[in-house]
Design a protein that fits this description.
The chain is mostly helical and 269 residues long. The protein is built from ten helices and four strands; from the N terminus they run αααββαααααββαα.
């Protein structure tokens, strides 16, 4: 029972130390961020740093100094965090259950269609405000720069490439547009071919445009997001088990504090 207080105190001291660089990173982004993508990250990073700082202090003081009300607040926050993580994990598996790339004949890469993904994800990227922010991040991240630098790549070699979902959706036009290949990010429209795909009209050889406004780019982004969310969901399961163990130890520490409060002479016996 005595060890529970020490364990909770130690774990929260480590968390407190971790919160300092996270908070510092958020403050650095707030002053040094130059792109919209970096500016978007500053508030969540600062909020995460402050949250970890406050919660870890509550847990550390509550366990080591035997302050019952602080430890009680710590346990309530931990319980809420466990519930939120559990719900997010289930949600992540549900919304990423749909959607997969389509194999293209004689091509090393796949193509992606927005309609194949869950309605919730589609609504997120169809929102112009959301997509403009994502588009800015994709451009700032120079996701198509690697392909643009391969100007001497022949058509046969390019078509055999294994492109990432974002490269396939954002850095080249869809196959049904039947554009003539010049380089990985430069294509010539074929006036003799008509297509009902709106992405064909959205394509532009300008490096700042390419197919960033195409539905195929949104689909490629969602495919990438789907893979990332599934990995995060698996990590969350491991983290949930860890949190439940810490929560259980915290409950023991809280009960230990109450026993000591009921008998103030107990610690000296």
């Amino acid at each position: 029972m005595k060890c529970s207080n020490s364990l909770v105190g130690l774990l929260n001291f480590v968390t407190f130390l971790l919160s300092i660089p996270i908070l510092g990173g958020g403050i650095w982004l707030a002053h040094k961020a130059t792109t919209d993508c970096e500016k978007y990250l500053e508030k969540p990073v600062i909020a995460l740093g402050v949250f970890l700082l406050v919660v870890s202090l509550a847990g550390f003081i509550g366990a080591c100094c035997r302050v019952n009300w602080l430890l009680w607040v710590y346990l309530v926050v931990m319980f809420i965090l466990i519930v939120i993580l559990f719900c997010f994990t289930i949600f992540a598996f549900v919304v990423t259950n749909k959607g997969a790339g389509e194999v293209v004949s004689n091509r090393g890469y796949k193509e992606y269609k927005l309609g194949d993904y869950s309605n919730w994800l589609q609504k997120r990227v169809d929102n112009s405000k959301n997509w403009n922010r994502i588009r800015s991040c994709l451009i700032d991240g120079k996701v198509c720069q690697k392909l643009a630098q391969e100007r001497n790549t022949g058509a046969t070699e390019f078509f055999a490439k294994h492109l990432s979902p974002i490269e396939s959706g954002c850095c080249k036009p869809p196959e049904d547009c039947q554009f003539a290949y010049e380089s990985p990010t430069s294509w010539t429209k074929n006036g003799n071919v008509t297509s009902n795909n709106p992405d064909c009209g959205a394509w532009n050889n300008d490096p700042s445009t390419l197919c960033y406004d195409c539905t195929s780019c949104k689909a490629g982004f969602l495919q990438n997001l789907k893979s990332d969310w599934k990995r995060v969901a698996v990590i969350n399961i491991v983290f949930l088990v860890f949190l439940i163990i810490v929560y259980s130890i915290g409950c023991c520490a809280f009960r230990n504090n109450r026993w000591d409060s009921a008998d103030p002479w107990k610690p000296y016996r």
